[in-house]
Amino acid sequence: MPEWANPVAHYMLHDGLTATLRIAVYAVIGSTVLGVVLGTLMTIRFLPLQALIRLYVEVWRGLPILVTIFLVYYALPTAPAIHHRFGAITGASIGLILWGSAQVAEATRGAVQSIPHEQHEAAAALGFGWVGRHRSVILPQALRRLLPPLVSLLANIIQNTTIASLIGVTELLATGQRSIERLQLTPPGDSHAFAIYGALLAAFFCISFPLTRLAIFLEKRLV
Amino acid sequence: MTLLASFDWHFIWEHVPDFWDGLKATLKVAAIGIGGSLTIGIVLGAARAHRVPVLSWLAVVYVEVIRNTPILVQIFFIAGGLTQIPGHPIRLEPFTIAWLSVMVWGGAYNTENFRAGFEAVPARYREAGLALGFSRVATFLNVTLPIGARIALPSSINTYVSVLKNTSLLTAIGFAELTNTAYSLESVSFKATEVYFALGVTYLLVVWSLSALVRVVERRLLLPEAR
User: Is A112 left (phi over 0), alpha (psi -120 to 50) or beta?
Assistant: First the structure.
């Protein structure tokens, strides 16, 4: 490895990758929990509730993630009712959760509806209430169908954490860009931009490729 | 209520022309990106489905690299990385970077859409075409393409909507599209709520009307047996 690359690699892996993974973990957990709840609620035959969740899903799926993150990070704190500033990592995570939960909600609705009606009736006959029926009988079965899209979501969320760099989070992409700028300003002034952006592409590929393969494998095995 | 009372509608109204300029740039880049990704999708999708040697292997590498790396890094790689290739720097205009990056991204997703569409065309249709004396190319153009493209339509349309949404990331290289226009407006006016609310509504209107338009086209192009 050339001499310039060592400190750059250390900075990117130590600071950048940590922030990337932190946002990804927050976003995946938040999206899954919120999305599964919303998706399950969407299967209740109560029109106002269905319409409300449908609106939520269509809005956050329709907006570019960058616009959602700008709304959360810049617009929300200035709204008179909120008046609360939060950190860039929190802002990016919330933005990704709004987008991710909309994806998960849609997948959950499909998975729950694919469970045969007899399962609901059998659970009801055993004395389960609505919550118990879904928690103990329906959702565990729906999870088989849900697992492949959740793995794809994880790969997508890890890729989309790079958008956090645009509101000032020093995640993997931002650490790469700072390294390029620093190398440019120090003699001999070679930025190594081609090598660093190439390494970034390679790094994301190494994380994402196994996940997309896993999603395809699970889809073949489980469904 | 306080939220509505302090909302400066007049400010939005005043800056409609700015948003309109940004929207025009977004739509222009998206249109070129969508057209390009349609072409890439048909050509490479056909190469993949018909297992054309070399071209289909290159298509696999292209699809996997693009689908497994963040588009934002791809944009920076095209805008900043290519200018620093040792020996052969490639410098592109911002507008070229803009349409090229969303086109390359959409093309990879579309290759998969069209591959799946072409592979879903029953083999007996193609055999019938060949039996009638059509050449392989003529069979593709007259049988596989019209049927397979319709099967691929719903998924390819999702890709086109994503291409349009992804143009927002071009704001990162300072390209003056819709999101960048809003960002600049916010940084001089500090009216974040108004600016980003208007930005969000504009995107939703465009994305939702594109989806609605697409549903109409989809119904009109429905395969006879699915009707």
Answer: alpha
Nearest residue in B to A163, CA atom? B72
Q: Which helix (H) or strand (E) holds A21?
A: helix A17-41
Instruction: Please tell me whether residue B192 adopts helix, strand or coil conformation.
Output: helix
For residues B189 and B171, what is the distance between their CA atoms, to the nearest angstrom? 18
Cβ–Cβ below 8 Å for A209 and B64: yes
With vertex at residue A218, the alpha carbon angle to CA A217 and CA A223, rounded to the nearest 5 degrees, is 120
Q: How far is CA B212 from CA A33, B35, B208, in A?
A: 30, 19, 6
Among chain A residues, the shortest Cα distance to B76 is held by: A197
Contact check, Cβ <8 Å, B193/A78: yes
Selected for mutation to probe chain A from B60, B68, B164 (highest A CB count within 10 Å) is B68
And the tokens for B7? 């909302």
Q: Which residue has the tokens 């071009």?
A: B170
What is the sign of the dihedral through the CA atoms of A116, A121, A126 and A130?
positive
Confidence of residue B86 (pLDDT cuts 50, 70, 90): confident
Of chain A, the percentage scoring pLDDT greater than 90 comes to: 77
Distance from CA of B155 to the nearest CA of A (A): 15
- Rounded Cα distance between A79 and B6, Å, is 9
- Amino acid (one-letter) located at A74: Y
pTM comes to: 0.91
Comparing B222 with A106, which gets the higher pLDDT? A106
Q: CA B141, CA B26: separation in Å to the nearest integer?
A: 32
Tokens 């990162």 appear where?
Answer: B172
- Which token pair is A144? 């088989």
CA distance B194 to B174: 21
Please answer whether residues A176 and A12 qualify as being in contact, where contact means their C-beta atoms are separated by less than 8 angstroms: yes
Determine, for residues B84 and A193 on separate chains, whether the beta-carbon distance falls below 8 Å.
yes
Q: What are phi and psi of A81, to 5 degrees?
A: -75, -20
Please compute the mean of the pLDDT values over residues A14-38 and round it to a whole number.
95
Percent helix, percent strand, percent coil in chain A, to nearest 5: 85, 0, 15
Question: What is the DSSP secondary structure assignment for residue B177, as one 8-state letter?
Answer: S
- H/E element, A50: helix A47-62
pLDDT of residue B4: 59
- In angstroms, rounded to a whole number, what is the distance separating the alpha carbons of residues B135 and B126? 11
CB A88 within 8 A of CB A167: yes
- In this prediction the ipTM stands at 0.91
Question: Which tokens sit at B127?
Answer: 């055999």
> Tokens 């958008």 map to which residue?
A163
Structure tokens of B163?
Answer: 């291409």
Q: Does the CA dihedral B92-B97-B99-B101 come out positive or negative? A: positive
